[in-house]
Structure formats: C-alpha cells, structure tokens
Amino acid sequence: MAVDVLVLKETASGERRVSATPETVKKLRAAGAEVRVQAGAGSAAGFTDAAYAEAGARIDDAIGDAALVLCVQAPARIESLKPGAVLVGMLHPQADAARAAALQARQLTAFPLERLPRTTRAQAMDVLSSQAGMAGYKATLIAAQLAPRFFPMLTTAAGTIRPSKVLVVGAGVAGLQAIATARRLGAQVEGFDVRPETREQIESLGGKFLDLGVSAAGEGGYARQLTDEERAEQQQRLAEHLKGIDVVICTAAVPGRPAPKIVTAAMVAGMKPGSVIVDLAAETGGNCEATQPGETIGVGGVTVAGPLDLASMGAVHASEMYARNVLNFVALFLKDGALAFDWNDELLAKTVWPERPATGEIPPV
C-alpha cells in the first residue's frame, strides 16, 4: 500500500509558498507515494489545482489519514493530524511552547527543517539557504524602491549622478545575494561581516569588504558572540562609516537566537537624511534598534523598513526551491512506497524533534 502524503495549504498570514510543486509531486509518486493536495494549496505561488491533478495528485482537504504531511510553516491545527504521522516543514517547535506540546501530544515524528545540519551532503535539502537567497534579493529591491536616489552612476544632460553607496551587513546567503543584486543594479557596494573568511566571498561578487578590525570567527561557519570590548570598538567604527552610506541592508542572523543588534539608534541618528535601512532580520527582532517589524518608518530623515515574509514575495521560485529541498529530504526515508528511518543517518537524527539517539532502522510505517 502506497504511503499517503498530504501537501497542506498554508494558513499563516502573508505565507504564499507551498511545500510541493507539480514537479515534486511526480517524483513523490515515483517513490511510491499517493499524493493528496489541499485545494488551493499552490494558488498563491502560481500552481493551480489542475496542474497538481495533471501531475497525479488528488485534490483532497481531508487531513486525518495522512501518514506524511508536508508544509512550509507549522499547521494551525496540529491536533487534526493523524497520531504518529510524520510532519516535515519549518516548524520551529522551540519558539512556541503550545506548538511543541501539540506536536508531542499527537506523538508526531516531526522534522523541523531549520534544524538540518548544514553539511555538504545536506546542501540540496537546506531550506534556510534557499529561502534566504530570495529574501536577500527582495530586500535589495525594496531598498532600491525606498531610496530617493538612483543606484547606478548615470551620465545625463543635467550632469553626472554618482552611484549610491550600499552597505550590506552580514554575509550569509541572504547577504551575499543582496550584494550581488545591488551590484547588478549598479550601486557601489560594501559588505560587512565579523567573520573574516567572508572577505573572499564578498569580493568575488564585486563588493568591497568592510574591515572594522573586529573578528568573531566561530565554529561551523557561524559567528561567535563578541565580548563587550569588541562590540564597543565595532560600533564606534561602524557608526563613523555609516555617516557616508546611502543604503544599509541588514541580514545578520544567529540560528536559534534573536537577531544581533548591530545598528544602534545613535548610528541611525548619525546617518544623513534620505538614507535608507532595510532590515531583513526583522522577523527575529532586527539588526537595527529602530526597526519595527512589518513597518516602514521615518527616524530623523532616515527611512527604516522591517519587511516580513520576504521569501513569500517571490513565491514561485521560493516554492520551487523549497519543494525540491523537501523532496530531497523526504527521499532519505521514503523508498519503495514505505517510510523507514535510519536513525544512524545524522541528517535524520539531528533534524528530528525531539532528537533521538542513534538506534538503527525502525520497521517501515
């Protein structure tokens, strides 16, 4: 009997992505799954019910019988899922005690994909990277729209227009995409990150590495926490540099923690009127002290934007990437029409919540 897989329609406000596309539905069916898609699940991302049906899925809103449930964000009604079902998505159980309790009460095998180890083998499943790329792209376009100036240098009959000076704070996937996009728009771009190893990546995209003399190189490619002295030195030098910047795009994040506060209120006050700050980190509190998540405000002549759901703004391509990530992850345990988990596989053992000890394979579901 084929595994019953359900693709949920997202219910979170502003969420337009979907966890499977007609392309990935075909591949799930080839792996032995019977795929059902809730009506309208992909409509906001440009994937019609007819396209899913043509790919071999059934359009069906029933939730309770699914053995494997795919989502982008955690379902609003976890209690409606079949006890013992497998749930795959960006679930963030540790961020919501009620959600964590609901997952445990239903005895779900939950795979919060944000917990996936960021190893070479896991790159094709890395939802954080794929979605951050879209977020960095959209944040840059928002910055260009809000800025009261051109990004590129222009030579006109009225004289030469100098290019905008753009500083991207944070050189993870989102930051690097922001640097690349701002460069394509013709801006003069700098990238700042406390990890010195990002210099080569920033420069490879045509940006200039902003060296403030403070290094926070840590383990696993993530930054370590700065000491109070290091932070004070960084802030002093950054504040001085921001006085000549036209646009700041903030992208710095530490997994599982609130976004680090890098741009202080005093720094914002020191920026020239007409400057723009777009804080991609608004969803986890923001890198800028003046950021109000979901709002665009004026602070002493400086525009500060804290956009939310940036990846959803590019729902078509964001969904295509996310769905492929999900498919590649599910392929670890969906084989020949059955679910079987090898808990000795670190990608499964370290992603499942709560984490389980390595005990070998369990019988197929």
TrEMBL record:
This is proton-translocating NAD(P)(+) transhydrogenase. SUPFAM superfamilies: Formate/glycerate dehydrogenase catalytic domain-like (SSF52283), NAD(P)-binding Rossmann-fold domains (SSF51735). Keywords: NAD, NADP, Nucleotide-binding, Translocase. Its EC number is 7.1.1.1. Residues 144-306 form the Alanine dehydrogenase/pyridine nucleotide transhydrogenase NAD(H)-binding domain. It comes from Stenotrophomonas daejeonensis. It catalyses: NAD(+) + NADPH + H(+)(in) = NADH + NADP(+) + H(+)(out). PANTHER family: NAD(P) TRANSHYDROGENASE (PTHR10160), PROTON-TRANSLOCATING NAD(P)(+) TRANSHYDROGENASE (PTHR10160:SF19). Belongs to the AlaDH/PNT family. Residues 6-135 form the Alanine dehydrogenase/pyridine nucleotide transhydrogenase N-terminal domain. GO terms for cellular component: plasma membrane. GO terms for biological process: NADPH regeneration. One of its GO terms (molecular function) is oxidoreductase activity. CDD domains: Rubrum_tdh. The transhydrogenation between NADH and NADP is coupled to respiration and ATP hydrolysis and functions as a proton pump across the membrane.
